[in-house]
């Protein structure tokens, strides 16, 4: 039984390029994480800013994006942005969908980054803001120098959760026509329905290998960066 | 509710050929699975037959309001009728492509009519009755597009198909390597991109395309090219070594001979002017293994 | 209104007005362009939208789909909460073995995509034949959601406890509570309150993730909308309607959770935690 299983694993790897598919997921995750962090930070700043319309825009964005299933956003990105509006992000056909998928993943997870940062901001004592004001800092310097750095440190754990969710949600990119792990998994099952369990284990373990280090890293990072109070 | 059905089923069993059918069901379950009890109870004794169809393929298998329509559905009704099940004894179950073998193996359905091509690979795990239709891979293009008459013309064009389908890859491998391939979760998404002009063609089996083209909202906007370049034999999926195979084949032969087959085809997918490939259709069912 | 900035003065207010007008013009401009493009592609055709004003898509597709979505989500929320509480406490346990086992379980289920788990349970349960076949998709969806979201809850409980001021635990031990008692009676209740916004977001995640059930034949809202759209040539419109339903329900859920959080916060008397009054709440946004 064990022998047969090992054989199935090796034959699967030789037949299909599983690693290449996972590499696509890692790339999707990498670019989306950066873009989502940028958009999310911007949103979090908007939500604590002095300008009412910015606060409104920030919270509207979060409300809309956070509450829509990613699959739908992904489909809108491809069928809406590209299909109907004709927006192309790259002259290369395949790269275009990769970027559309990154865009969809980013705008979706940015809402969660914003929420994570908000919960981080919640951990910053009011006294910090008061002190910042007292030494004459206006909103932006106070946010940039005092509040957000502490908020980032306080929100490492929730941000880690967002990153992990993003890694796994990168499988939804198959809905945007990007050939990644979940798409390959479907293809492999179609070709080899007999070794279905081996296929699942391969992919599940693949994600464990990617995600667990991220989880452990953010856990230890959140402990190391925690502001002792 | 369930009890009511049971009573009804028992009454029916006494009069119809149902008794024979359900014992047949029991037999193949015993052959196919190690633990057949659960399936036996839900399959035969209640007097309903569970038929797997597509729910989302207009013209073939589609949930239209509170009922089910399409060519596959109508053929299924006919075959089930020949097996002794009235329309109210049919329980429709959604059978998406990737799950068809599992549904049969798990005993979640008794028969599958869901654009199910007979292949040797699939025959290793399930059995087939039929074929009841021979489809071929074809292209769906915009109604005013005359530049595409076959897969060779797709060089440099955008082609849409569903995720994990081999049909689009075949075009890239065998006909036009420079085809841009877009994979979508469903054909309806592909058609949306086609009518918007961002893809040039959608590919899959001709009858599926015809079904999409026959949707009222798409009428006059898209057309099937009508130059099929593969052969897909749609069979009736049944559990491995099911004893229903012969009866299913007899039903299909009868349906073709008495003209019902043509009638059902025209009714369901004929609206866009689609005609089935006449060299291969109607097919003769294969001998049961 | 906020400790972060002064109430804007007349000059700043005037500048804001102009900036708002500018931004509004840009947003409207983009909106008009999008609508124009969609109109040109025929997507605004009333024929594609009016079906949603009739009973058919609602009674036959959307409402049954929504009921299935809510059923799966409702069960999963309860089971995930139980799972999360058990293993969250397990991770904080004094026993090394319990901590290790809980940690492994939580980290594993946090790592595997929900979709993979759903498919696995779907096939596994189907082969074991211990359930009525028609129940398998629902159970698989619930199990997938439970293990993933439960492990997220566990993580929230743990990080919430770690985020508490050290004094809480010290005080609890000082008044003679044991480790477990301090955890159960002092730390976890406070941690839960602190993590309520994150928990509320997770509830929304559960509801949305039921949409993955579409892959394993679970007839939930997204599946129902796609089915309707396929046969009526208006799949984009159907998805818009489905998205709106999701947004409205999830928004309601969030507001409910917020209101609940406010009440729980009030119940814990004057100052629950001296250092965590939220700046965000102080700015009075939303």
Shape of chain B: globular
CATH superfamily of chain C: MetI-like
Q: What are the low-pLDDT stretches of chain B, counting only 5+ consecutive residues below 50?
A: 1-45
Q: How is the main sheet of chain B built?
A: 5 strands, mixed
Describe the largest sheet of chain C.
none
End-to-end separation of chain B: 38 Å
Q: What order do the helices and strands of chain C follow? A: HHHHHHHHHHHH
- CATH topology call of chain C: MetI-like fold
- Count of domains of chain C: 1
Low-confidence parts of chain C, pLDDT < 50 over ≥5 residues? Answer: 268-286
DSSP E strands of chain B, number: 13
Our estimate of the beta-strand percent of chain B is: 15-25%
Instruction: Please give the order of strands in the largest beta sheet of chain B.
Output: 5-1-6-13-7
Number of helices of chain C: 12
Taken from the alpha-carbon principal axes, the silhouette of chain C is flat
Query: How large, in whole angstroms, is the Cα Rg of chain C?
Result: 24 Å
Written account of the structure:
The complex is a heterotrimer of chains A (229), B (289) and C (286). The model of chain A has no long low-confidence stretch (mean pLDDT 84). The radius of gyration of chain A is 21 Å and the shape is flat. Chain A is mainly α and 229 residues long. Chain A starts with a helix and ends with a helix. Chain B is an alpha/beta fold. A 5-stranded mixed sheet of chain B has the order 5-1-6-13-7. In chain B, strands 10-9-11-8-12 form a 5-stranded mixed sheet, sandwiched between helices. In chain B, helix 4 packs across helix 10. The N terminus of chain B is likely disordered. Chain C has 286 residues and is an all-alpha fold. Chain C has a single domain, classed as MetI-like (MetI-like fold), CATH 1.10.3720.10. Helices cover 77% and strands 0% of the residues of chain C. Chain C has 12 helices and no strands. The C terminus of chain C is likely disordered. Chains in contact: A-B, A-C, B-C.
